[in-house]
Design goal:
single chain; 336 residues; alpha+beta; Trna Endonuclease, Chain: A, domain 1; 3 domains; 7-stranded mixed sheet; 10 helices; 55% helix; flat
Amino acid sequence: MAFKDLFKKATEVTKKAVDRAAKEAKYRKKALEIKMEISKAEKSFQKEIERREFEAKREILSQLKMRQLEGVCAAKGISTYRTVIVNGEKKRYKIRNKEELIDIMASHMTLEEVAEVAKRYKVKSRHIIYQFNKWLEEANAALMALKEQRQRELDEYKAMLFGAEADEVETIELKEETEESLEAEQELEGIPSHEVDILDILQDFEPETVRDEEDLEKQLYQYLRARLGGQVQRQVPVGDQKVDIVIGGRIGIELKIADSRSKLQRLVGQVLDYVEYLDEVIAVILDVRANVEIDRYIRKLRMLGAEVVVLEGDIRRKGKSREIIIQDARRKVIIR
């Protein structure tokens, strides 16, 4: 009888330990979900800071005359020329468009440096900077309020989950993001904790029949979104243009169907602009066997520092409409 009682007691202790472990796992999972939410909010906050700061710098610099802007560029070592590929050769052209020059300056100068320039040339900047700092203070307070609210929610969840044993469980604080939670977020979004090779991911892209570039873009966007999660964005403004797809705010992908030389020429011009703003640019070209000297344009893109992915396809016409059939989707030419 004593043995049975001892066995029963041991079973109860084991069951209690398993139950406690299961609750702790739920608690950690809940904390991780909240940390992921906060992390995304912080990333969005940082992007909005960069956007508003850039606009504030542009607003201040726009008050200067072109010759004054050029003088600032000379003092700061900012090039007032841009390079264009003409017949396979690099040619430098003087930037004469004020808006284009302001964009370049705003991307190379801090807000403090722009404020100093404003002071030197006696143009208005105090109100612009005040408005930016006011927004920054309010947005930061809202972010802190979100963290505090989520911490209360987590504490309430802990009390509900553990009941009288809640005080025995160590409280998880949400004040700082841990490496462990960041790695877990990446794994949940399908991103390995090490550096992601986008070209390797593109190797597995298998598009279906498409009608135009927008259709191809949608398919690639959905594919990358499924693999990489929320860091994939579509039609992202860069300079005065929009990149088809941007990953993590630093890798741009531009798609073109190579059925005319004008499209490939436009692609070269787009890449030329994008490389100034993005860490990496990838051109995805659908080769439909048109007589457009595609190899020459690929060489131009490589000279600009872009990666090139070539898909092969055929155009099948149906009356006034057409379909583009992607062939051997796994066999892509990746030119580094």
